[in-house]
Each structure stands twice: as C-alpha cells, then as structure tokens.
Amino acid sequence: MTPRNLKIFTQCGQQGFSLVEIMVGMAIALISTLIVMQVFATFEGQKRTTTGGADAQTNGAIALFTIERDLRMAGYGFNSANALGCKVNRAFNGASLTPLTLDPVLISNAASGDVITITVSNKTGWSIPATITTDHPPTATNFFLNSTLGMTSGDLVIAFEPNKDCTLLEITDIPSGTTQIHHQSTSPWNPPDGQNIFPQPDGYRSGASLINLGTIENRAYKLDANLNLVFAEYDSLTNASTDQPIAPDIVNLQAQYGFDTRAGAQADARIDAWGDELIDADGSGIIGDNGDITRIFAVRFAVLARNGIKEKPLPDGSCNITVAAPSWSGGTFSMSHVADWQCYRYKIFETVVPLRNMIWKQ
C-alpha cells in the first residue's frame, strides 16, 4: 500500500459521531419528545373538555325539552277549575290507596333536587263535567246524570262536590237509552259498597259533578343515585309506576311555581310571585286550597348537566371548579350528593313554561 492510499484509508476510518455528539443529539431528541408530549397532553385535555361539554349540552337539552313538553300539557282534561286541589279518595283491588291531589303540577323537594310531577287526562274527546241529578249514597253503584256524552266503559271519573273530598271511580257500564253510569265492583277501582272512599254519611248530593278523565297520566321527573334524570310514569290501568332513565349526568333539578296573586279584576294570569312551594296566593289564609292551585300559571325550572369526564386536578391534587346557579334558586346548587363535584365542568339550562291549560281556564 502506497503512502497516498494509506492516508485516504486513515481519513475514511475516522468518519462518524463522537460520544459527545451522540449525547447532545439524545438530549435534543428527549427535549423535543417532552415538548411534543406536553403539547399532546394539553391538546388531549382540551379535546376531552370540549367533547364532554358537548355531551353535557346534549343531555341538558334533552332534559330541558322533555320536562318542558310535559309541563305544557299539565292539567289537560281537568275540565272543572273548581275541583283543582281536591283530595281524591281511591282504592284498588279493595285496598285503600294514598289519596291523590288533583294538581296539574306538583313540585316536591328531594336530596338531589326537586321532583316535578305532572298530571293530565289522556281523554281525547274533551267534554264538560256531567251533573249528578239524583242523590248518590255511599253504597250506590250507579250515578244518574244530566248527560253521558263522551263517557265510555273503562273511563275513570272523579265525583266532586264543594267542601267534600273527591272520589275516583271506573265506569263499568252505560245502560243504553239512559243517562246513568254504573260503577260496580267488577272493576278493581270500585270497592264493594264504596268502601271508605265516598263522603260519609250522605255521599254526593244532586247538583254535584262527575269529571271524566279517561285514564290518568301521572309523570314525575326526578334524579336517581347515579345522576340520571328519571322519567317515572304511572299506569292507572295497573296502579303501577315504572322508572326509565332518559338523560345521564344530570346533577340537579330546581323548579318554582309562578303565581298571580292579584285580587279581583286585576288577576289576569300574569305572574307576580314565585315560590318553591305552594303559597296562600288567593289570600284565603289556607295554603294549597283551590284558590291557590288555580292561580298557578307557569313553572320555571333549571337543569344542571355535568361533563362526565374529570378535569385534571391542580398540583396539590385539589379541584376548584364552581357552579353558579340562577339567582332565583338561591344562587347555589346543593352538590353534597356528588363525589368530587369540583373536578367536573357543568352547563346550566333554564326556562319558564306557561301552563296553557291553566291559562285557558281563565
């Protein structure tokens, strides 16, 4: 090998990276990877927040729409304003049941929020109340009426007389060519001899009313322990209620009645008072009577929906997300029933629903 060739071979053997260069390259690569991972983690967190916010938006909108739709129908078929608020005695298969109050909408408190119960008639053929033409003692099994228009066998009816409890019965027969209905004990809603559901001692007198409801639809919206908005529907055919979750991650539900408390000719179905509970809206000194129920013309409610994905906690492991409730509900939501509630993001939906069937009764 000549000296010239030896020089070229020596130079080629010295090509490559030194240890220092390799270490510098690895450090730059690690720093770049760290930056990329930090950007990715930040972006992924923002994506989860956005996606979860969209889920909360959808769930809250479904909850709001469903409750609002049923509230607009509250009181449908209650074609006697004088009977609203009446205590309705009833029995099923011979056993007395808890009396039903003839309220279009009822708001009650629960640990996780309010429960909104809506009651309507499903009778498609609407008619005015029939008038009882002959005294009906507690043991009678038929009503003599001025008309049976719109009534059919199987319809549930409510007997009403001022200053007395109401009674729920089922029509078992309408004899042809007569203006009377039978309510015999062949129906589970008609106990033998009117067992403890008719006013004592004289039952209903001539001039009282019979309100035809067809069947009763009683729907309650509430929250369960798993933070689902639950739709509880009562079936008057079987006297049973079934629960069905309709929207997940609903954390709270708050509602208020809207009253018109103005007296006399000034009362025109415009809301001038709101309340979580029934108030003495008519100034009678009795809370929850007919005068108060007939002055409920709207309901406002708020739904609090949650992002189902936890946010990243602070370096000390804590979370500091807060929720500002509508001022009318007190400014804060009770969150004691939600674990780690400050680690989630929320969306609030609220609306005011006019009770059109109550307004039309005016």
What order do the helices and strands come in, and which of them pair?
Layout: H1 3-13, H2 19-71, E1 87-89, E2 91-92, E3 95-96, E4 100-101, E5 105-110, E6 113-121, E7 130-131, E8 142-144, E9 156-160, E10 166-170, E11 180-182, E12 209-214, E13 216-223, E14 229-235, E15 240-247, E16 250-259, E17 273-275, H3 290-293, E18 296-306, E19 346-354, H4 356-360
In words, what does this structure look like?
The mean pLDDT is 86. The longest helix has 53 residues. 20% of the residues lie in helices and 29% in strands. The strands form five sheets. A six-stranded mixed β-sheet has the order 4-1-10-9-12-7, with no helix packed on it. A five-stranded antiparallel β-sheet has the order 5-6-13-14-15. It has a four-stranded antiparallel β-sheet with strand order 17-16-18-19. With 362 residues, it is an alpha+beta fold.
